[in-house]
Design a protein that fits this description.
Elements: H1 2-50, H2 56-61, E1 70-84, E2 87-99, H3 102-109, H4 112-124, H5 128-131, H6 134-156, E3 163-171
Helix pairs in contact: 4-6
Length: 172
């Protein structure tokens, strides 16, 4: 009789082990269903919003004379120093060139040492006090644009750069 009691105990523990396994499997399936619903809902809402974007090329064809803007980032950033009243000051500028024709930008890339020299000379000739104001920064940007356009016209014979953009401007 004692042996019968001992043999019936282990299957009872095995039964609770099976119920735990069923619970784990049920939780895993519920988790996968929740992830699937989340991914499906996200895909549904994003694909619904993407339909108006397909009509964007039709709007681009409405202005056939205007090409898409292309950007050429000049790396590394330009760093120049100023001696302001006996105190050393620094300017760090990250520059991007905006053009409309990739062939013209590629032709300008061949002149990159000349371009970088032009920018360094322009940036280092500035007055630190004028660069602190937003108007001074905009004036510098316009001077840089005019300078690079003249250089591009001389070097390649074409106006390769439409604008010079400052993507980072740090004064210290």
């Amino acid at each position: 009789m004692a042996k019968n009691d001992q043999t019936t105990s282990p299957p009872a523990e095995g039964g609770s082990g099976k119920s735990r396994m069923k619970l784990i499997i049920l939780l895993a399936v519920a988790f996968l269903v929740a992830v699937g619903l989340s991914v499906g809902g996200t895909w549904f809402f994003l694909s619904r919003n993407a339909k108006p974007a397909e009509s964007a090329p039709a709007e681009a064809d409405a202005h056939p004379g205007k090409k898409e803007a292309l950007y050429e980032v000049l790396a590394p950033s330009f760093v120049v120093n100023f001696n302001q009243g006996g105190r050393q000051r620094y300017l760090q500028v990250s520059v991007a060139l905006m053009g409309r024709d990739q062939a013209q930008l590629d032709a300008l890339k061949e002149q990159m040492p000349l371009v970088r020299n032009q920018f360094v000379m322009l940036f280092s000739s500035q007055n630190f006090d004028s660069l602190v104001t937003p108007v001074g920064k905009e004036m510098l940007r316009q001077q840089a644009t005019a300078s690079i356009q003249a250089l591009a016209k001389k070097a390649t014979g074409q106006l390769a750069v439409e604008q010079v953009l400052f993507t980072n401007f740090v004064l210290q």
